[in-house]
Design a protein that fits this description.
Two copies of one chain form a homodimer. Chain A has 162 residues and is mainly alpha-helical. Chain A has eight helices and three strands, in the order αααβααββααα. A three-stranded antiparallel sheet of chain A has the order 1-3-2. In chain A, helix 3 packs across helix 5 and helix 4 crosses helix 5. The two termini of chain A are 32 Å apart. The interface between A and B is large, with 80 and 79 residues. Chain A binds a DNA duplex (23 and 23 nucleotides) through residues 2-3, 5-7, 54-57, 71-73, 81-89, 92, 104, 107-111.
DNA sequence: TATTGTTATACTCTATAACTATA
DNA sequence: TATAGTTATAGAGTATAACAATA
């Protein structure tokens, strides 16, 4: 597998001893959520690797929707990295024929990055894989799915999800 | 912030258009889960950055529990990367005085990586930050927390979480 | 023969700083 | 002056391949 690695996985690993302690319902719920989280991260990186894309490249591609494209600095903002990184990432995507740079018409400092036909294909193939709800959730009864959604809605509403 | 970046964030970003479609309860639940996931990833990388650790270094440190230490190849397995990467990661942790290498006594090919006193301090400080249940979940009623735990338990049991 | 860890190599990502062009 | 993007530089992670030591 091309690009699965320590840095990507690290954030999803729980500390060994945290598995042994007695827990509240919230703790247990969170531990279970982290398992889902782990599986999902893994799925993203494996999917990116299937298309021979570095995670940063795959993430960029996923941000590029139909339309006139995204300014370089907008990509940098969404990926939470410096403008200068985007230059390199887009360079490599462009070299593979997946995206194009197009100069802005109004503000000529801006360059818009847009998908090529080939890029659109790759993006859609990735998206359709990633859009799938994990089997663990899909296999729940409809009632449980609703329950889960409602509880999480309340969590998102009251707490600070960000 | 030292090390928050495209590759790390990419896997947690949802595709733009996926937000607009009509959804089943399972889809909505999954979308909400991804928000929590996003926040948690962010927390991990920010915490690592606070201690001036690269995510891979922080992840390694978190795997090192008390005791005789972990063989290099065991770390590689847990981090899902090649042995040769661990050499470099441990080199840098060792240079900062956070871990030590110790030759195996039985099998002399193996080297055991263990925390120093300093490494233990850093690890505990990180662990105590990361162990906290996200505010979004903690703010739920006890009943909701139990509900969440129970539904997720069923999900983990029936579906394939990995 | 197989495994453990290292070294060598090449590529990607990342941040910072300096630069150009534009606003 | 400020912003968008590039280039230059340095450092870290990553995979592959080749290697020495050990099993």
């Amino acid at each position: 597998m091309g690009r699965m690695a320590a840095a990507e996985m690290a954030g999803t690993l729980s500390a060994p001893e945290s598995r042994a302690r007695p827990r509240s319902a919230g703790d247990e719920a969170w531990a279970l959520l982290r398992e889902l989280l782990f599986a999902e991260r893994r799925r993203f990186f494996e999917t990116a690797a299937e298309f021979e894309l570095h995670p940063a490249q795959a993430g960029t591609l996923m941000q590029l929707d139909e339309g006139p494209g995204l300014p370089m600095h907008e990509i940098a903002t969404r990926l939470a990295c410096d403008n200068s990184n985007v230059t390199g990432i887009v360079d490599r995507l462009e070299a593979r024929g997946l995206v194009t740079r197009r100069g802005g018409e109004q503000d000529r400092r801006v360059k818009y990055v847009a998908l090529t036909a080939s890029g659109r294909e790759v993006r859609e193939a990735m998206a359709s894989k990633l859009a799938r709800v994990p089997a663990a959730i899909e296999s729940l009864s409809l009632e449980d799915q609703r329950l889960l959604r409602d509880v999480l809605s309340r969590a998102a509403g009251t707490g600070s999800p960000a």
